[in-house]
Amino acid sequence: NNGSNVSLSAATIESSPGILFLTNGKFILGTNSFTADNITGGSALSYVCTNNSGTLNRIVGGANVFFPVGNSTYNPVQLTNSGTIDQYQIKVIDNVTDDGSGVGQTTFLAVVKRTWMISESTIGGSNTTIRLHWNGIGEEINSFTASNAFMAHFVASANLWDNIGGVVVGTGYVETSGNQDFSPFTISSTGVFAPLPTELVSFQANCTEQNASRITWSTASEN
To answer: Is the pLDDT reported for residue 188 higher than 90?
Structure first.
């Protein structure tokens, strides 16, 4: 409860039993991470500020777990995990880049200008529902359209953002279920943001007698 904010000076694990009460002012992590069992509160006036490499870490199981995080603004995350209980680490970056890093040139495509970095301690076994929150037009860029919003996940092995769909609730949040792969995520509304990765075997175009073209192709794989 400090309007001048509080900065974490070392990586910290919340004492158990303990509760982090967020009332007024930001809890700024910087390069340090904070591991919490219990958090009460979280709002645009008071949240865990992930302004550098530090993350908010929490155990997630079958019940909803709230991560009251943001950077320059409050962009919280809610996770539910019907798979193996695991600890998740989350931070928010105030940028979206084509390579998923959030560092460097901002994408020219229609997005919410936020990248949510979400990771799990033990790879595999998770089955999560992810809910990402944004705050309307002030965070939307490049003609983003809220009514067409979906969640996008960056697939490093394919070097592209993948449209993973989602249920949209106004300009409040996008939610997807069945997630087993993590980090990074953003919210987009453009149809060209997630191209279909294919491995082509052949691709051929021929003129036809009807003053048109016939295009045929085959693929070895489609993701």
So the answer is: yes
